């Protein structure tokens, strides 16, 4: 008589042949399994424009969207969205990842027509955001913010307000009212630079001071700001006790009129700064003295190849984790420029890659440096590229993340 097929009969047959587990494993208690550690997760926070932005800046975003990153493919999977915030067009994490700070690019926070900055605590288990408080940014329509290297202040660049605000960080991560607001002044500058590429009809607003980025140098001794309206790069020191900015020995340098310095990135040793100019889409390579804060331009190189003709506006600049390559994004031209860094810090343009989307602004590396992400404001999407650390090459991985009017990123590993 043939025995009916079952798991038990199969095991008994295997036991008879000497290939099955010991009988005690069939009838006795199962051995305890070794505990498997929980896999860590990588979360990506993305902000951008929503309907609460000033006229001309409104977008399709909902708030700060949280995604989980697939660390094998680079894909982003939606998790949740914090919606109760107006146009968080720039966000940043504290060094210990316990707090996230988001500006609101608005001009109606108070009677002074300021923008605002919101402080959040970050749940280290889920990644969810808990709002702590909201304060004035110290000027209208802020465009960038960063946490000072010492970790006690948030620095805010107020674009329309033409000012830099200093916000103290309280022990619980919330923010105090500005301890200092510095307004820049200078002569009226042209809308376009004299060294434009052929056919570039894009303009930058030079109606007055428009601070576009502010951050400390790697040592934390100095605070640097790009003023796209005055075509200057400013340098201050920050008194950590009072929260006041003091001009450096050389308080600013002038760049080419109309070039609109927008963002910058420092080399790891802090002795070279790469300044991205928006209007003429060029990078100024300058030496930086970590003792005095003095800036001396050494080179200027285009973010588009000599073949390109037409309108473009440069947006973001990054240095690769190994310091060997610099990347810049071009809006309108919809390209990513790849530069090789020379032994002296100079740049050589080695490639120009299509963004696969429209009006790419912010770029960011994931924490491992494996992928580069680009926020494409007008096409309501994020695209990503696998990074070759040896050659600097970017390989599009065909992952499109749908999100309204994205402009900024922050990552968290939990």
Defining key terms:
mainly beta; four-stranded antiparallel beta sheet; glucose metabolism; 2 helices; Lactonase family protein; 414 residues; 28 strands; WD40/YVTN_repeat-like_dom_sf
Explain this structure.
This protein is mainly beta and 414 residues long. Helix content is 4%, strand content 46%. A 4-stranded antiparallel β-sheet has the order 3-2-1-28, with no helix packed on it. A 4-stranded antiparallel β-sheet has the order 4-5-6-7, with no helix packed on it. A hairpin with a 4-residue loop joins strand 14 (232-239) and strand 15 (244-254). The model is unreliable at 1-37 (pLDDT under 50). This is Lactonase family protein. Belongs to the cycloisomerase 2 family. GO terms for molecular function: 6-phosphogluconolactonase activity.
Radius of gyration, whole Å: 25 Å
Report the sheet with the most strands, covering strand number, pairing sense and barrel closure.
Answer: 4 strands, antiparallel
Low-confidence stretches: 1-37
The CA-CA distance between the termini, in Å, is: 59 Å
Helix content: under 10%
Order of helices and strands: HHEEEEEEEEEEEEEEEEEEEEEEEEEEEE
InterPro entries: Cycloisomerase_2 (IPR050282), Haem_d1_sf (IPR011048), Lactonase_7-beta_prop (IPR019405), TAT_signal (IPR006311), WD40/YVTN_repeat-like_dom_sf (IPR015943)
Protein name: Lactonase family protein
Family: Belongs to the cycloisomerase 2 family.
GO molecular function: 6-phosphogluconolactonase activity
């Amino acid at each position: 008589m043939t025995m009916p097929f079952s798991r038990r009969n199969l095991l008994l047959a295997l036991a008879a042949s000497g290939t099955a587990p010991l009988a005690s494993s069939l009838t006795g208690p199962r051995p305890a399994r070794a505990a498997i550690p929980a896999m860590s997760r990588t979360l990506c926070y993305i902000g951008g424009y929503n309907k609460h932005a000033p006229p001309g800046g409104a977008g399709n975003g909902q708030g700060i969207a949280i995604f989980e990153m697939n660390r094998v493919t680079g894909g982003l999977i939606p998790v949740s969205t914090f919606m109760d915030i107006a146009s968080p067009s720039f966000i940043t994490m504290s060094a210990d990842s316990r707090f996230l700070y988001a500006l609101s690019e608005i001009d109606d926070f108070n009677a002074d027509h300021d923008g605002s900055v919101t402080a959040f605590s970050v749940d280290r288990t889920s990644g969810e955001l808990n709002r702590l408080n909201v304060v004035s940014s110290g000027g209208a329509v802020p465009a960038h913010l960063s946490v000072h290297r010492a970790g006690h202040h948030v620095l805010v660049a107020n674009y329309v307000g033409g000012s830099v605000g200093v916000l103290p960080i309280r022990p619980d991560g919330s923010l105090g009212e500005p301890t200092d607001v510095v307004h820049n002044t200078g002569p009226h500058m042209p809308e376009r630079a004299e060294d434009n590429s052929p056919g570039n009809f894009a303009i930058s607003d030079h109606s007055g001071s428009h601070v576009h980025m502010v951050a400390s140098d790697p040592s934390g001794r100095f605070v640097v700001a790009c003023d796209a309206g005055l075509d200057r790069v400013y340098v201050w020191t920050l008194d950590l006790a009072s929260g006041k900015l003091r001009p450096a020995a050389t308080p600013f340098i002038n760049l080419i009129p109309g070039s609109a310095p927008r963002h910058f990135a420092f080399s790891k040793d802090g002795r070279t700064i790469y300044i991205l100019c928006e209007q003429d889409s060029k990078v100024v390579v300058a030496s930086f003295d970590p003792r005095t804060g003095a800036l001396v331009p050494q080179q200027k190189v285009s973010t588009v190849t000599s073949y390109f003709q037409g309108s473009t506006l440069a947006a973001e600049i990054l240095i690769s984790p190994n310091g060997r390559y610099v990347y810049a994004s071009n809006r309108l031209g919809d390209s990513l420029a790849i530069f090789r860094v020379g032994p002296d810090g100079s740049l050589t343009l080695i490639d120009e890659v299509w963004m696969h989307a429209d009006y790419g602004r912010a770029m960011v590396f994931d924490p491992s440096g494996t992928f580069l992400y680009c926020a494409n404001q007008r096409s309501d999407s994020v695209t990503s590229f696998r990074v070759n650390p040896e050659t600097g090459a970017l390989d599009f991985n065909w992952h499109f993340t749908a999100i309204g009017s994205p402009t900024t990123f922050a990552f968290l590993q939990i």
